[in-house]
Design brief:
26% of the residues lie in helices and 30% in strands. It is α+β, with helices and mostly antiparallel strands and 117 residues long. The strands form 2 sheets. It has a 6-stranded mixed beta sheet with strand order 3-4-5-2-1-6. A two-stranded antiparallel ribbon has the order 7-8. β4 and β5 form a beta hairpin.
């Protein structure tokens, strides 16, 4: 199964939010792919950085999963739910890292773009 996320966007919301620094927003084609992305992101964060999500909300069958890593919140959406919630528009007026709109940055649940402060 292809575990690459699509339509990936990283939003820098440090100036507007106290609860996190970044939103990573990504589409999965179906609930199986969203579940696989969420599982692999959590597993790779544990393996590579020895961190676990502080929390997880939503479910893949509902078209949305949120992984809360504190400074980074990952939103995994079905295309329909992403269009419904429109987080891109709500927070999109802020700095985004448009270079991350490439599905090669998320492969096997690993986000490979590094953000430099």
């Amino acid at each position: 199964m292809d575990k690459k996320g699509e339509d990936i966007l990283l939003l820098d919301i440090r100036e507007e939010a106290l609860f996190t620094d970044y939103f990573l927003i990504c589409n999965g084609e179906n609930d199986r792919q969203i579940r696989a992305l969420a599982d692999n992101i959590a597993a790779e964060a544990k393996k590579k950085a020895d961190i676990l999500p502080w929390g997880q909300e939503g479910n893949a069958a509902g078209g949305w999963v949120l992984l809360d890593f504190g400074d980074l919140i990952v939103h995994l959406f079905s295309p329909e739910m992403r269009d419904y919630y429109k987080l891109d528009e709500l927070w999109g007026v802020h700095t985004s890292f448009s270079g991350c709109n490439n599905k090669d940055h998320v492969q096997d649940g690993i986000f490979s773009l590094q953000v430099i402060h």
